[in-house]
Specification:
The protein has about 475 residues and is an alpha/beta fold. About 40% of the residues lie in helices and about 20% in strands. It has 18 helices and 18 strands. It has helices spanning about 20-35, 45-55, 90-95, 105-125, 145-150, 200-205, 215-220, 230-235, 275-285, 305-320, 330-345, 355-365, 380-390, 400-405, 410-415, 430-440, 445-455, 460-475; strands spanning about 5-10, 35-45, 55-60, 70-75, 85-90, 135, 160, 170, 190-195, 195-200, 210, 240-245, 295-300, 325-330, 350, 370, 390-395, 420-425. The chain has a 9-stranded mixed sheet, with helices on both faces. The protein has a 6-stranded parallel sheet with strand order 15-14-13-16-17-18, sandwiched between helices. The chain binds adenosine-5'-diphosphate. Adenosine-5'-diphosphate binds next to helix 1, strand 13, strand 14 and helix 12.
């Protein structure tokens, strides 16, 4: 294996997953290995990660990392032979409900993870492995490129991937010394951001190259108003910034083999998908109507996901004979809004709560449509899962949603390229219009099946994206 890369992140499916970042880390390293890249993953030693990956072998220790006491670098392997490094530092990582759980240690917790990433990148894992480059994912490990920049000796190249610019990790600058950053790091040309110390900005400033998870999002975040205040820096670094779409883990997300489903199916056996719709209706207390247009949603309930738009037009959707199967948790106002809607519309609006991997799969397999009305969406995975499962996506044309769904215009339908429905304005009426168009086409059984089949034939596997990452790594080290 020629190229050695350390990927550092706070999430990785199946050990710990909060959103799409977990899916990416669960699939990209294997796809890279398939291309001959020796990709290894550094994760925080959360209980779930330590339990999932076994005790591992201790290769390095730090007596007091970032003031959080002793930290050990453990090496472990998963069943497929992928190597993981776990930062086992009980004071920071044990007993948490999830990696991002708030608390006074939060900045030092992730500074420790970033420090360990930079240390392995510079000095190796202590067991003879020396990476050629570091690939840091999102703000939690944003300080890693900064630590590399301030370390003595030749700088190890780094790639910083933005999965979501909305999360930046901004903290009190008085913490700078405790975070083991030199005074010069807190500067306009450094980690300073409007009077705070920003982990993400540190990564964006100090990393050798930057990437984000779709070409459209890469453009949007450089445009005025599109970069959460970081658009100037991103435009300045525009020549180093690439957009690479996320992919689908075809083994995990495959309706022909999915163990979570009532009935497995593929494009050639689409009619048997109906069993999954009936089962989903039963699971969520929806009326068992095969002809009702069943709209699915699997999402964090976060204002950026635009689900307030759906809430605003939900009564109309139900009045037109539609049903909703929603799985999500997060924002308490949105949760309460959908709970109220479910109470108002028994048998028409069903809701699953909390994190439920199996139900997520069953929604993609049973719903006729999947709504992703995001105000912003760096890539989005649920529309890709929907396509693969023959649920037709209804998306707002932003970020990766714009890059992956072809609107069912008459021309695209004639050409056989349509895969879903898009809308532009982040307004309830625009979503409502798209839903109306979808419902009209749903009534045309043959056209609908053709739309489903075109969606299912789309190839959003990881291979193409992994090739682009491998090419970027090569640029980094050349
Ligand atoms: P984001 O990363 O912004 O949350 P993505 O669309 O990129 O959005 O990824 C979301 C991932 O999280 C998908 O794998 C989706 O199926 C999953 N997901 C979201 N909410 C839930 C939930 N409540 N239960 C199970 N999976 C969920």
């Amino acid at each position: 294996m020629s190229l050695r890369v350390l990927l550092a992140a706070p999430e990785c499916f199946p050990y710990v997953k909060v959103g799409g970042l977990g899916d990416v880390l669960g699939a990209l390293p294997q796809a890279l290995r398939g291309l001959g890249v020796d990709a290894r993953v550094l994760l925080p030693g959360l209980d779930a990660v330590l339990n999932g990956l076994g005790p591992g072998t201790c290769l390095r220790t730090w007596p007091d990392l970032l003031g959080g006491g002793e930290a050990r670098l453990l090496r472990a392997q998963d069943g497929a032979g992928l190597t993981f490094y776990l930062l086992d530092q009980p004071a920071f990582f044990r007993g948490l409900t999830g990696p991002y759980e708030d608390g006074p240690d939060l900045p030092r917790r992730f500074a420790a993870l970033a420090w360990a990433a930079a240390a392995v990148a510079r000095e190796g894992d202590g067991g003879g492995w020396h990476p050629d480059a570091l690939h840091a994912h999102d703000w939690t490990v944003g300080l890693a490129p900064a630590y590399l920049a301030f370390a003595p000796g030749p700088r190890v190249p780094s790639l910083m991937t933005i999965h979501n610019l909305a999360f930046q990790g901004r903290f009190d600058p008085a913490l700078r010394a405790e975070l083991w950053l030199p005074p010069e790091a807190y500067a306009l040309e450094g980690a300073e951001f409007h009077g705070t110390l920003s982990f993400l900005k540190a990564g964006l400033h100090y990393a050798t190259r930057l990437s984000t998870v779709s070409p459209t999002y890469a453009r949007e975040i450089q445009a005025p108003g599109g970069g959460f205040g970081l658009e100037g820096l991103l435009a300045w670094r525009g020549h180093d910034l690439t957009g690479i779409l996320n992919g689908v883990d075809r083994a995990l997300w495959n309706p022909a083999t999915d163990p979570h489903l009532a009935t497995r199916y593929e494009a050639s056996s689409l009619p048997s998908r109906a069993t999954n719709k009936t089962a989903l209706q039963a699971e969520l207390g929806l009326a068992p109507e095969p002809g009702a247009t069943l709209l699915g949603v699997v999402s964090r309930l976060d204002p950026h996901k635009g689900l307030d738009l759906l809430l605003a037009c939900l009564d109309g959707w139900v009045a037109s004979g539609g049903q909703l199967a929603l799985l999500g948790s997060g924002d308490s106002g949105l949760e309460a809004g959908f709970r109220d809607a479910a109470a108002r519309h028994p048998g028409r609006v069903g809701m699953g709560q909390g994190y439920n991997e199996g139900l997520a799969h069953r929604i993609f397999a049973g719903a006729d449509l999947v709504a992703v009305p995001s105000r912003m969406e760096p890539c989005g995975l649920t529309q890709l899962y929907a396509l693969r499962y023959g649920a037709v996506p209804v998306v707002r044309r932003t970020g990766g949603l714009a890059d992956t769904v072809v609107d069912a215009t008459p021309e695209a339908l004639d050409a056989g390229t349509a895969t879903g429905f898009g809308f532009d304005a982040p307004e309830p009426w625009a979503l409502e219009q798209a839903l109306c168009r979808a419902q009209a086409l749903f009534a045309d059984v043959e056209s609908w099946a053709a739309l489903q089949r075109t969606g299912m034939a789309q190839d959003f596997g990881w291979e193409a994206s992994a090739k682009q990452y491998a090419a970027l790594y090569r640029k980094l080290i050349s």
